[in-house]
Amino acid sequence: MIVSWIQNSISPSLKSSVVFVDDAKEIWQDLSDRFSQQNGPRIFQLKKDLASLLQEHDSVSIYYGKLKSLWDELSIYDPFPICTCGILKTLMDRHQRDCVLQFMMGLNESYAPIRDQIMLMVPLPHVTKVFSLIQQQERHSQLTSNVSSTQTMALAVTKPYPSSKYPPKQNPNSKKDRPYCNHCKISSHSMETCFKLGNVVAPVCSTVILLAILLRNVTN
């Protein structure tokens, strides 16, 4: 019955190679020898990914999540030894320390001040505690940045425009500074240019000139 279950569970291409085997243990061993892989290559790849992982443009939460995923998978392929002595606790403490150091090494340089403060703590906090502290710093920085942006926008709105170096143009229709004749009581000219006072020659209307020319031609 077990043989039938194994044969029905594998793909048809593999089933043909064990169809004539009646022993379940023999089938299982044959498949294990052909398809099982050592943990070494996967452990190497996981540690390589951990060594090259940086926060860069990720948030602290996303960056920590990537690290946590690699740590969890690595613990499956490379588990702690099972023992009843006190060495296991020492190994787990060292593992937590390494996780803290790895997490902080990949952070952006903007977290350098709080990172230095954490490194001075004795004993070094658990990696989850360190993650919480860094995340609080991230939120504080975002809040400060938003406040600064709002203040900058407010200043840009309230800032007066610089005065022009060119004087404003005078409106030609404005009555201010227009010449005024006290003799004629009008503002079309001044007393210095008043022909009624004899200061200038009286202007001749173009219509009068044209009429004089026509009359001269008629008399001739």
Fold and architecture overview:
This protein has 220 residues and is mostly helical. Among the domains are: 1-35, no CATH class; 39-142, no CATH class. The protein contains nine helices and no strands. It has helices spanning 2-9, 12-18, 24-35, 40-52, 60-77, 87-105, 112-119, 127-158, 206-219. The longest helix has 32 residues, at 127-158. The model has no long low-confidence stretch (mean pLDDT 77).
> What share of the residues does DSSP label as strand, in percent?
under 5%
- What is the helix fraction of residues, given as a range? 55-70%
Largest sheet: none
Shape: elongated
Number of strands: 0
What is shown here, in short?
With 220 residues, the chain is mainly alpha-helical. It has 9 helices and no strands. 60% of the residues lie in helices and 0% in strands.
Topology of helices and strands:
Blueprint (H helix, E strand, L loop, with lengths): L1 H8 L2 H7 L5 H12 L4 H13 L7 H18 L9 H19 L6 H8 L7 H32 L47 H14 L1
Helix pairs in contact: 4-5
Keywords, please?
elongated, Retrotransposon gag domain-containing protein, mainly alpha, Retrotrans_gag_dom
